[in-house]
Structure formats: structure tokens, C-alpha cells
Amino acid sequence: MDAKWYVVHTYSGYENKVKANLDKTIENRHLEDVILEVRVPTLDVVEERNGAMKQVERKMFPGYVLIHMVMNDDTWFVVRNTRGVTGFVGPGSKPVPLTDLEIRSLGIKNVNIQVNFGVGDTVAVIDGAWKDMVGVIQSMNEAKQTVSISVNLFGRETPVEIGYSEVKKM
């Protein structure tokens, strides 16, 4: 099955709660292979507050959350019954996936990164919160384009999920 991007309507102001609830449900029910990503698209804007210019994050689509998933009865049920979700965008109860053109215009790219590393390889993190850490790849998720590496944090081996573009083979 092929994963596509779908849009769900949420109660206004509940976008981040819906994302958090879905992420927790995906983890608890081990649906990582069928619900790949949940996004609340935001935009950085500069606005004047109390006479000073401040950079703030604004939701691009208030009341909506984007979900990259494989649509089936189970995934539909999980998403539809998430607290704060009022329904999928589409006629009746039939969700309609976003087209490639719509996805590109939102800045969501489905670029497949070719990698020269695999499970068991030692990699260095070159970007993000874990920059300059070194770890051994425990597993790889082709669909999400992420690796799970084990890093030494406070004297303990800790698993961390990182995107392909953020690591390089040592």
C-alpha cells in the first residue's frame, strides 16, 4: 500500500493536542509503518508587539492537521476517533488524499535520500539537537527515512531517532 497525505479537521486551537494524541496512539499501537507522520504546518512571521518586532510561529491552516498515512479501516478509525478530531477533509466519510501538486505547494517534499550506511554502522550526527554525537545504527525506517541510533547520554546508552540527512557514516 502507498502512503498519502490526508487532512483532518480539528477543533480550533487543538491542532498541537491532536498531533500529540496521534503520536502517542501511533507509538502505543505500533502503527509507525502505516501512519508515518503527523504535521501542524507553521510559518515564521515577524509582527509588532508592544512596539518591538518579534518573530512568532503561526499555524498555516488553523483547525487542520496533515497526516501521512496508509488509508485502511484501522488507520481511519484511529485518526477519526482521536480526541479533538472532527473528521477527515473530503465528501461524506471518504477522505481525499492531497495531490502531488498540493503537497509540493505546501513545501512537503517526498525526496528519497540514498544512504551509504546500514544497521551496525557507526555514524556521526551532523545536524539537529544531537549534533556532534556518535552512535551505532540499531534500526532503519525506509518509509520515514530515519535511523534509530544508540548514543551515550549521561553514561547510559539511549536510543534516538534521527533523519537520514542528519547523519553521516564514519
Give structural notes:
The chain has 170 residues and is of the alpha+beta class. The protein has two domains: 4-105, NusG, N-terminal domain (Alpha-Beta Plaits), CATH 3.30.70.940; 122-169, SH3 type barrels (Roll). It has three helices and eleven strands. It has helices spanning 15-28, 73-80, 100-105, and strands at 4-10, 35-39, 42-49, 52-59, 64-69, 85-88, 122-125, 134-141, 146-153, 156-163, 167-169. Strands 10-9-8-7-11 form a five-stranded antiparallel β-sheet, with no helix packed on it. Strands 2-5-1-6 form a four-stranded antiparallel β-sheet, with helices on one face. A two-stranded antiparallel ribbon has the order 3-4. The longest helix is centred in the N-terminal third of the chain and has 14 residues, at 15-28. The model has no long low-confidence stretch (mean pLDDT 86).
What is the domain tally?
A: 2
Class inferred from helices and paired strands: alpha+beta
CATH topology of the largest domain, anyone?
Alpha-Beta Plaits
The pLDDT mean sits at 86
Quaternary class: single chain
CATH superfamily of the largest domain: NusG, N-terminal domain
Sum up the overall morphology in one term.
globular
β-strand percent reads 35-45%
The largest sheet is: 5 strands, antiparallel
Level-2 CATH architecture of the largest domain: 2-Layer Sandwich
CATH class of the largest domain: Alpha Beta
In N-to-C order, the SSE pattern is EHEEEEHEHEEEEE
Radius of gyration, CA atoms, in whole angstroms: 18 Å
